[in-house]
Design brief:
Layout (H helix, E strand, L loop, with lengths): L26 H13 L3 E4 L3 E3 L13 E3 L9 H4 L8 E4 L3 H16 L4 H10 L8 E5 L2 E5 L2 H4 L9 E3 L7 H16 L1 H14 L9
Parallel strand pairs: 3-6
Antiparallel strand pairs: 1-4, 2-7, 3-4, 5-6
Helix pairs in contact: 1-3, 3-4, 6-7
Length: 211
């Protein structure tokens, strides 16, 4: 798959932590805005700790200005919600003036306060979005589409087309599981995609919140 590297100037504070020990990551909106301006193309931003388990149908994003995923079942506890009502590990941006203006506003919100990119994005949308309802909604003059997190930003790593393998850089057991999953996807991609697709359809193995 063809790839390209871009250099972008970011704040040296992007690795800092907020008061809840969440990484601020205020470089994300500046990198996205740079990409939108430089390429003139839409942007699907996927965090580096995500794995694709199958092919993404780009029709999923057609007609939307912004696509986000609300919190999934694994991230529904209070300490998760303190860092926003969405998970910014997978976000799609169309390339038009209203989207670029919104991303610029998101960038300013990140730089102006010691909160994560995720919390800043959630706060900007919270007044106009019902995070409990999937599908298209209107907010800030944009069509905002809420995608199913168990498919497009799956932090449980059981049913998604995109697995979001959180904490692999901090917990040894998570890293081992990540490496095994990566090998499975690398050497048996069709079989892995088939098995995960069946589980997505029939929900044989899913995450159930404890307590």
């Amino acid at each position: 798959m063809a790839s390209a590297q871009y250099k972008a100037r970011v704040s040296p504070t992007y690795k800092s932590l907020d008061c809840h020990n969440n990484i601020i990551a205020n470089h994300k909106p500046s990198c996205i805005l740079d990409f939108l301006d430089r390429t003139g193309a839409p942007c699907l931003c996927i965090d580096a700790d995500c794995l694709l388990t199958g092919r993404i149908d780009l029709a999923v994003f057609e007609g939307a200005d912004l696509c986000i995923t609300p919190r999934g079942v694994r991230e529904s506890k209070a300490h998760h919600l303190r860092n926003g009502l969405l998970n910014s590990g997978v976000v799609f941006f169309a390339n038009n003036e209203r989207v670029r203006s919104f991303v610029a506003e998101w960038h300013e919100a990140c730089m102006a306060s010691a909160v994560s990119d995720q919390k800043a994005l959630s706060d900007l949308l919270e007044g106009g979005i019902d995070f409990s309802r999937l599908g298209d909604q209107s907010c800030r003059g944009m069509t905002v589409r809420l995608l199913d997190p168990e498919v497009y930003n799956d932090t449980t790593c059981r049913t998604g087309i995109i697995f979001h393998c959180k904490s692999v850089g901090r917990l040894a057991r998570k890293y081992v599981a990540y490496r095994l999953l990566l090998l499975w996807l690398k050497y048996m991609p069709r079989f892995a995609s088939y098995v995960i697709g069946l589980n997505r359809r029939y929900r044989w193995i899913v995450y159930r919140q404890r307590g």
